[in-house]
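User: structure tokens for this one?
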Amino acid sequence: MGLFEALGIAGKAGEKRRETRGDTKTVRKIVRKLEALPPERARYLAAFAYVLTRVANADRIIHDVEVAEMERLVAENGGLSEDLAVLVVQIAKAQNQLLGGTEDYLVTRELAKVATREQKQELLRCLFAVAASDGSISVAEENEIARIHSELRIPRADLVAAKEPFAEYLETIQKGPTPT
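Assistant:
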């Protein structure tokens, strides 16, 4: 199974992908490289990128700095070239915007099955990095990270440890307590 199938945007296994007018030689080359990844690795990267987009889209606005951070993290964690990471993030972002509510839990649950505890801990750190990339972690983003943490089924201490380096970006801390 290739990355596109893992993300649910390609035809069934064995079906030939249709060429579209938007396919350029460069895009086809990148697609071939992604499809050459081992299926387990492609699934993991697809799910990893998709879950990052959950946080970026939590406030219904995906900022350019969040996209750039997701691309950097996917390249770094996936051992991908910049071009491949950009494509993976764009596909994940499009899928999240199209199917978000219905796919969020399913994709994260699948990731929880295949990821090690260390990979889940790294994912939590990456989620906070994406949320903080625009200078502030909104309450919506923080709540989405808490939901993802719950779906990953790892100890709360892992969430606290991942959040600590990003505490200064938390909107609730930046604004301070509400006067009474």
